[in-house]
Amino acid sequence: MKAVDHREFKDRLFGQFARIGKALSSPRRLEIVDLLAQRERTVEEIAGETAMSVASASQHLQVLKAARMVEARREGLYAHYRLADEDVFRTWQAVRALAESRLSEVDGVVDAYLDDRDALEAVDAAELMERLNDGSVIVLDVRPEEEYRAGHIPGALSVPVDALEAALQTLPRDREIVAYCRGPYCVFSDEAVALLGSRGFRARRLRQGLPDWRAAGFPVEN
How far is CA 54 from the centre of its chain? Predict the structure, then answer.
């Protein structure tokens, strides 16, 4: 075995590990990872969702691509970006969970903008799976329809939050309704549950989002 320069070895090794941290060091790039966990998107779609210019969105995607956290496929004139694999989402999950446990400012931001969230009862993924198995609940996917088509909880109905008002007359009133969206900080489900409650429905929100559901090993339909 050849002699190893321990300092050089560690510098180079930890330098590679740091590439992941650097790629995730931007709030914009974290938001892009969160979006791509729902479905693949073009640069133009990402720019529209994140209120960035196309040039800025492209630059952030190139940083993530250089760290091999996202991949792209070309279709005509457009590049469609997706997460490289499920481990990328799990890494974002871990960052999010660490911030939640160590930074009280996270709760402060949530309380400042979602001050009525505590009034909206939540259900976790394991309980929802049990309720799905016994058929005692209606599940609404209130994300945009394109995200629903890319993957959804089995049996869930696609009712984007901006179409929910028009769909109320089609929903049964004798069963509880659970709404879910992109993740724990997505407000689509909050808005849906608030609307349903105001119209006399029994409704709760799923505490997690579809990517968290998938990462926990629960089934997903395409």
Answer: 22
What's the rounded mean pLDDT across residues 45-63? 98
> Which residue type occupies 170?
T
* Distances from the Cα of 206 to the Cα of 54, 104, 128, 203, angstroms: 33, 23, 8, 10
Q: Pinpoint the alpha helices (H) of the chain.
A: 6-23, 27-36, 43-50, 54-66, 86-102, 104-113, 125-134, 145-150, 164-167, 188-198, 210-215
CB 181 within 8 A of CB 142: yes
Torsion of CA 133, 149, 86, 96, to 10 degrees: -80
Question: For the whole prediction, is pTM greater than 0.90?
Answer: yes
Instruction: Give the active site residue among 140, 181, 203, 215.
Output: 181
Sign of the CA dihedral 49, 162, 218, 204? positive
pLDDT at 1 over 80: no
pLDDT at 114 over 90: no
Residue 186 among the catalytic residues: no
Q: What value does the CA radius of gyration of the chain take, rounded to a whole number of Å?
A: 20
Distance CA(83)–CA(93), nearest Å, equals 13
